Amino acid sequence: MRKLPKMPKLLKTAGLECENSFCKQGYSLIAGIDEVGRGPLAGPVVACAVIMPLGLQIAGVYDSKAVSEKNRIALVEEIKANAIAWSLGWVDQDLIDEINILQAVYLAMSKAIEGLSPQPEAVLIDGVAGKWQPEFPSEFIKKGDSISHSIAAASILAKVARDAYMLECHEEYPEYGFDIHKGYGTKKHRDAIREHGACTLHRRTFIRKVFD
Fold first, then answer.
1. Is 92 exposed, middle or buried (0-12, 13-18, 19+ CB in 10 A)?
2. How many whole angstroms separate alpha carbon 196 and alpha carbon 115?
3. Are 109 and 31 in contact (CB under 8 A)?
4. Nearest 5 degrees, angle CA 103-CA 104-CA 106?
5. 198 forms bridges with which residues in the sheet?
6. Buried b / exposed e across 95-118, counting CB within 10 Å, b at 16+?
7. Domain with 139 in it: what CATH number?
8. Range 206-210 average pLDDT
């Protein structure tokens, strides 16, 4: 029996239903917002806001955690080339310690929105509604980075930017292995903290239990 050719694997791609819902209400500049770096022991939290053209769907744009590093990096250029606007909001580890991680996430998202030009008419936000509310008509979407195309695009831009920053940090602090875990609390990272102590990148409020 003749072997059939191998079919290419279909890339998971977030849909446009959330964007279309706002579009039906008359909005055309719709920003998707997501953040990365909520849980690590070291480094910043980074949020991204992206306004994509209505109806555009880029194959493979999905929750950044489910996309390979190689594909994320390739998608960054395609997202940026097609986006109407995109912006990153950064909050470093010192401010995270000062105001707590939840407030830091809200601040990073606010910064990301403020950096958009043009400004959005409505926003889609990954997560569940909390005390923070942007000044624009908005909707919080649980697991939005796998449902909303613009949120998924934001998750990829934020993840690639933060990962690149942590790779730079590895050059200064190679003993912690930031190039591998990007600041997350792996066993190797926790062991390195116990051996070398904390560096300036560590979130003091996050690493207390490492020494318990």
1. middle
2. 38
3. no
4. 65
5. none
6. bbeeeebeebbbbbbbbbbebbee
7. 3.30.420.10
8. 88
Q: 15 — phi, psi (to 5°)?
A: -85, -175
d(CA 65, CA 104): 21
φ/ψ (deg, to 5) at 34: -150, 165
Count the Cβ atoms, other than its own, within 10 Å of residue 119: 15
Residue 184, by phi and psi: left (phi above 0), alpha (psi -120 to 50) or beta?
beta
Residue 61 lies inside a defined structural domain of this protein: yes
Sheet-wide strand order for 30-36:
85-91, 45-51, 30-36, 122-126, 138-141
**Number of domains present in the structure of the chain:** 1
pLDDT one-digit tens code per residue, 167-182: 999 999 999 999 999 9
Report if residue 54 sits inside a domain: yes
* Residue 21 placed within a domain: yes
Residues spanned by the domain of 137: 17-162
What are the pLDDT digits (tens) for 120-159? Answer: 999 999 999 888 889 999 999 999 999 999 999 999 999 9
Quick one: CA dihedral 69, 74, 79, 80, positive or negative? positive
